[in-house]
Design brief:
It is a single chain. With 460 residues, the chain is an alpha/beta fold. The chain folds into 3 domains: 119 residues, Gyrase A, domain 2; 129 residues, tRNA modification GTPase MnmE domain 2 (Four Helix Bundle (Hemerythrin (Met), subunit A), Up-down Bundle), CATH 1.20.120.430; 169 residues, P-loop containing nucleotide triphosphate hydrolases (Rossmann fold), CATH 3.40.50.300. Strand 12, helix 11 and strand 13 form a beta-alpha-beta unit. Helix 10 packs across helix 11. The relative contact order is 0.12. It binds guanosine-5'-diphosphate (GDP). The site of guanosine-5'-diphosphate (GDP) has 20 residues, from helix 8.
């Protein structure tokens, strides 16, 4: 792939605001020559790539703006694959603005958001999935989201898909060749091999498609709901988890009427906790709204904590609750509260009834809270994809194209079974190719690129 050097652009690459140092990045055709015009020190135009040089940046009248370190990167050995100079200056807003002004006076344009990454993409530094991972990496605020972004940046799933797409392209060419022969009954594309290839591709797609729910949760937090009867201790548990008095605790059943959302980080995973009004049958207007919302929140939740008062729960009610949790199809944890009031016999009795593990806590006494936290993070981590650090899809655009490809291939496979004519087959395969190509960025439109890269911050 040939490298294109576009007009020179510049932007602050570090976070705006006051800091010990700030880094400005200049990239594009003539980046080194133009920076050299405002730099006093060594002649940057003759310096080797990847070398740093001390000097000053001057106003046109010769007065010093700042002492800086200029690092030279010669294309294609740079982030954008263009010529790049990184200017490390003192982190003052005034100095940064003055240097940018000097650069623009020399004909450098201020960069748009994401423009550096866009150029890197256009010069083949990485594919679109990886480019988007750069944005996610910058935005990552938990250990797990950081890991997911990093895996994608390193090539993630797109490399494998690119190879399979190439094989599919070869098949489409053969199928389309059959079309040229019209009425003659020829088959250039071996149907068995095509069937196998489509199967192979779908095998790669499925875990990625399935990883989206967990991937999305990692990026945005795992929506977790605490449900249980009034007075089970839900508010007390929420407080214990969040370690502060966020919810209203009272002895009157059903007083936690408002839903309180809060976040909790456990082992690098973000949980969005949702407190609810309880699962009790509605007895009044306010409570009815609360219960409706509880059921809605259970639908929205990715993880359910079922909390019960171990002192007073009837074994039969515990069994009913367990089957309700199972019906919901969501991962859940059974949590027995008020351990401090229990006899060992009672605990054993409930365990026998439940026939599955119960996490025992005393919310009021903050006992067992760490065990519960561990159990929560384990529920999320048991997803193999997260555990092994393999690719996890966190991006809705990727998800859309992955499912689009899968649907088209499923349709093509069905067609193959039914013995459809080559033109029908080619149509489905074309749709699959279009999705795969848009996913990795081999097929792009300017609108798509603009919308993706505009989500970046300036300087990236
Ligand atoms: P909610 O209706 O489910 O939100 O329940 P609350 O959190 O308001 O608690 C109901 C009552 O149970 C309050 O009086 C709490 O003090 C009490 N409670 C909560 N956790 C415990 C516990 O671990 N042990 C004991 N003995 N009481 C608790």
């Amino acid at each position: 792939m040939s490298i294109i050097q576009l007009e020179p652009i510049a932007a602050l690459a570090t976070a705006p605001g006051i800091g010990a140092i700030a880094v400005l990045r200049v990239s594009g055709e003539g980046a080194i020559t133009l920076t050299n015009r405002i730099f006093r020190g060594k002649d940057l135009t003759v310096q080797a790539s990847h070398t740093a040089h001390f000097g000053t940046i001057r106003q046109p009248d010769g007065s010093i703006i700042d002492e800086v370190l200029a690092t030279v990167f010669r294309g294609p050995r740079s982030f954008t694959k263009e010529d790049v100079v990184e200017i490390s200056c003192h982190g003052s807003e005034f100095i940064i603005q003055q240097i940018l002004r000097r650069l623009t006076q020399e004909g450098v344009r201020l960069a748009r958001p994401g423009e550096f990454t866009q150029r890197a993409f256009l010069n083949g530094q990485f594919d679109l999935v990886q480019a988007e991972a750069v944005a996610d990496l910058i935005a990552s605020d938990s250990d797990a989201s950081h890991r997911a972004a990093l895996t994608q940046l390193r090539g993630g799933f797109s490399k494998q898909l690119k190879e399979l797409r190439q094989q599919l392209i070869d098949f489409v060419a053969l199928v389309e060749l059959e079309l040229d022969f019209g009425e003659e009954d020829v088959e250039f594309a071996q149907r068995d091999r095509l069937r196998q290839l489509m199967l192979d591709i779908r095998r790669v797609l499925h875990p990625l498609i399935e990883s989206f729910s967990v991937g999305n949760a990692i990026k945005n937090g795992v929506p977790t709901v605490i449900v249980g009867k009034p007075n089970a201790g839900k508010s007390t548990l929420l407080n214990a988890l969040l370690n502060e008095e966020k919810a209203i605790v009272s002895d009157i059943p059903g007083t936690t009427r408002d839903i309180i959302e809060d976040e909790l980080f456990i082992n690098g995973i973000r949980f969005r906790l949702i407190d609810t009004a309880g699962l009790r049958q509605a007895t009044d207007q306010i409570e009815a709204i609360g219960i409706e919302r509880t059921q809605q929140k259970m639908r929205d939740a990715a993880l359910i904590i079922y909390l019960f008062d171990a002192q007073f729960i009837f074994p039969h009610d515990l069994q009913t609750a367990i089957s309700e949790m199972k019906d919901s199809g969501k991962p859940y944890l059974l949590v027995g509260n008020k351990l401090d009031t229990l006899t060992t016999g009672r605990r054993q009795e409930l365990e026998d009834v439940a026939i599955e593990p119960i996490v025992w806590i005393s919310a009021a006494r903050h006992a067992g809270i760490d065990t519960l936290k561990e159990a929560l993070s384990l529920r999320v981590r048991t997803d193999a994809a997260v555990q092994t650090g393999s690719a996890v899809v966190t991006n809705a655009r990727h998800y859309e194209h992955l499912t689009g490809t899968d649907d088209a291939l499923a349709h093509a496979t069905k067609g193959l079974d039914a013995g459809v004519t080559p033109d029908w087959l080619a149509m489905d395969l074309r749709i699959a190719l279009q999705h795969l190509g848009e996913l990795t960025g081999e097929i792009t439109t300017d609108d798509l690129l603009d919308s993706i890269f505009s989500k970046f911050c300036i300087g990236k």
